[in-house]
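Below is a complete specimen:
___
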Amino acid sequence: MRCKDTKPRGAWWTLAVASVTAVILLGGCGHPREVAIPAEPAERGGADLGLGPSVRPLTSGPGDKGSPRWSPSGTSISFTMDGYIVDKSTDARQLRRRTTRDFGAQEAEWVSSGDGLAILGADLSETPAAASPVADGASRAVYRTRPGEGSLGVDEISTSVLAMSPLPNGGLIAARESGDSTISLFVMDGNGEISRTYTSSVEGAVSDLSVSPDGNTAVLAVQAEGAGKSGILSFDLSEGTYRRIADLPKDEEVFGAPQWTRHGVFYVAGEAEMAESEDAAPYDVYQISLDSGKPGPVPGVGEDFVASSLRASPDGERLAIVGRRNPNSPTDLYVLDLATNVLEAVTANENMEIKTSPNDLAWSADGGHIAIVARGILSGSRVYGVRADALLADFYNVYDVPVGNSSSSEVSEYGSAG
């Protein structure tokens, strides 16, 4: 899915493009002369960069960045950059590389109170390492970073991995293939050890999953195979049992991981063949009541809202939603209070393209900040010696959107759909 915006970009982008143009003009058509691209200062906290005056850049300069994740303490953030993993302090510019540059990483999750990361990427035992994203259908594996300052080594935890999600108290849960119509869920602790495995027969393939804030229930998005229907499963992690809580209409699929809250299960879905549409985002956001188990519209969002991705806050009381109020509006980040059904825009997008992948949206552990990934949009007629998509991809950066803490101070109790 792609979102378009043709409004002018900020001053930093003009400076960056001028530098790129200098590379092309000085180098001619042969071997271009290297010219540094000025970095946007990370401390420009009060500058309006096209997303609103309160939004702060956490990274700057070239590099195709994605999958931001706050550390448990909230003082650091990790992300992918051109296929490898880096992290940095939220108050510093310097990046720390966590893997080799040719790793082919897709996403990473903090799995301990220290600096341990679990990484989902190419299965290096079968696929040559590459900085480009892992192709659809390619085998993937989960790795654990090794402790030690400056270590770029990783340990392989499991192969044939379909999806992974962090657990509230550290570690992660992941789904992997284990045979025809069979999936296996495993729990990895913060030390990289597999502590429990679940095996069940499931029709379809798990595309994504997440865990309730209390850590008792996993919700899985399952894509249909053959004549079957895509749907959503609820998995009781104590009992090791699951049940199907929703079926999607034929030819529809869930985009990203369903989100479990005490107000119900929320997810984004739409027609699979429209995912590559150049027009308006084809997805809508739905709610499954824990009482009825029937999908329905989400109060407070509105009939014309066009959803791209969502993620529940750590306390399960709010949803971060990337989308548009209507098909002709710019893409923005919204926060929905599930207790009051009030939807609030927390960015004011004027000239930026916000990444809409579910992996490019993350809450801080205290629920006070959301990380998104965005870049500016070129306007007017210009000529460059490279493809436009290749040029623009180098300027995705991570932004901190402050959203305040949840208004609910009560500890949520979660019902069971298992």
About this structure: The chain is about 5% helix and 40% strand.
